[in-house]
Design goal:
The chain is mainly α. Among the domains are: about 50 residues, no CATH class; about 60 residues; about 40 residues, no CATH class. A two-stranded parallel ribbon has the order 1-2. Strands 3-4 form a two-stranded parallel ribbon. α6 links the parallel β1 and β2. The longest helix is centred in the last third of the chain and has 24 residues. The chain starts with a helix and ends with a helix. Keywords: ATP-binding, Helicase, Hydrolase, Nucleotide-binding. It comes from Streptomyces violaceusniger. GO terms for molecular function: 3'-5' DNA helicase activity; ATP binding; DNA binding; hydrolase activity. This is UvrD-like helicase ATP-binding domain-containing protein. InterPro entries: DNA_helicase_UvrD/REP, P-loop_NTPase, UvrD-like_ATP-bd.
């Protein structure tokens, strides 16, 4: 598909000239055998193209002359092997590449592109889903477009929504600054209710600092002693 002429012929009435050029250039780093470095986005792109264009037809293999046909003067249109081989090949391909799953888990869902949502949706038509993400951290330029693709992938199945409201990751000072940034970036988005108290982080920091300073002082004095860091609760 890195050949613009071939891709243009295959994608007639599906991709425009500009889209054909972009796709061909993005896949130009692949070798003649189709092997080469692929990005995460290339995987979704190839899956999308396979869905839109289908697998190119392979030329029919030439059949060897059957001695029985030459003796009788009759030629069987298809043999038993011809009829069984395609079914066997389809079964083997289905076994190698699973196309449907019972449960789909999507983490960092805010970063998925619409094309990636469609790729996953094709493999979870009958699945249950667990989707975890933070819209405020989205790296996709159009979150609404990605949201529509997500809703299309999930379909009409019942949904339950859970919102995490407690920030365990940052101290209060950082959480307050992040809340100000969130207000500017996504007005109306509720910030976490609270974060870990300042005193806990200060005590924890003092404990870690003391634990790291004592061995250094012992090494400088030439005396090695095993120090045990005080717990955060004892430092408060």
């Amino acid at each position: 598909m890195a050949d613009e002429k071939r891709l243009s012929r295959w994608s007639r009435r599906v991709l425009g000239p500009r889209e054909v050029r972009q796709v061909a250039r993005s896949l130009g780093r692949l070798g003649p055998d189709g092997q080469g470095p692929l990005s995460v986005h290339d995987v979704a792109l190839l899956d999308e193209l396979n869905t839109l264009l289908g697998t190119p037809a392979r030329p029919a293999a030439s059949r060897e002359a059957d001695p029985l046909d030459q003796l009788t003067g009759l030629e069987e249109l298809t043999t038993y092997a011809d009829r069984v081989s395609p079914r066997r090949g389809r079964a083997e391909r289905a076994e190698r590449e699973r196309t449907d799953y019972a449960h789909v888990i999507v983490d960092e869902a805010q970063d998925l592109t619409p094309m990636q949502w469609r790729m996953i949706g094709r493999r979870g038509r009958h699945a249950t889903w667990t989707v975890v993400g933070d819209p405020a951290q989205s790296s996709w330029s159009d979150p609404d477009e990605a949201g529509r693709a997500r809703d299309e992938a999930l379909g009409n199945r019942p949904r339950r929504r859970f919102t995490l409201t407690v920030n365990y990751r940052n101290p209060a000072e950082i959480a307050e600054l992040a809340t100000k940034v969130l207000t500017l970036a996504m007005p109306g988005t509720p910030p976490p209710r609270r974060s870990a108290p300042r005193a806990w982080h200060r005590a924890s920091y003092r404990a870690r600092t003391a634990a790291s300073a004592r061995p250094r002082a012992a090494r400088r004095s030439g005396c090695w002693t095993r120090w045990t860091a005080p717990s955060a609760s004892s430092s408060r």
